[in-house]
Design goal:
- The chain is mainly α.
- The protein has 2 domains: 39 residues, no CATH class; 52 residues.
- It has 3 helices and 2 strands.
- Strands 1-2 form a two-stranded antiparallel ribbon.
- The longest helix has 20 residues.
- It is extended and about 60 Å long.
Length: 95
């Protein structure tokens, strides 16, 4: 039980320090992640943890094989790349 109390204390501290928008975002994220663990859930997730400094990263997946996790990362990469490049000038304008 003590580990449950420590976990609750950590969650309470972190959530207590969040603004309302951050709390809503965290709720969305956690509900989606929890849904991956539902019985017969078709939802899968891959979470990438990193410091943004090019250091080590950690990858965790829920309800996904290594192959599916790899596919999800590739799909996410393509999506982010399209979002980043939308509205960018054509390549010819850089010459």
């Amino acid at each position: 039980m003590e580990s449950n109390n420590k976990f609750k204390d950590i969650v309470d501290k972190i959530v207590g320090d969040l603004g309302e928008d951050e709390k809503q975002h965290l709720q969305f994220l956690l509900l989606k992640l929890l849904a991956c663990y539902g019985k017969d859930s078709a939802l899968s997730a891959v979470v990438i943890f990193g410091d943004g400094e090019g250091g080590e990263i950690a990858i965790a997946s829920a309800n996904a094989t290594h192959m599916l996790a790899t596919e999800l990362i590739a799909i996410a990469h393509e999506h982010v790349q399209k979002q980043t490049m939308s509205g960018a000038p054509p390549k010819e304008m850089f010459n």
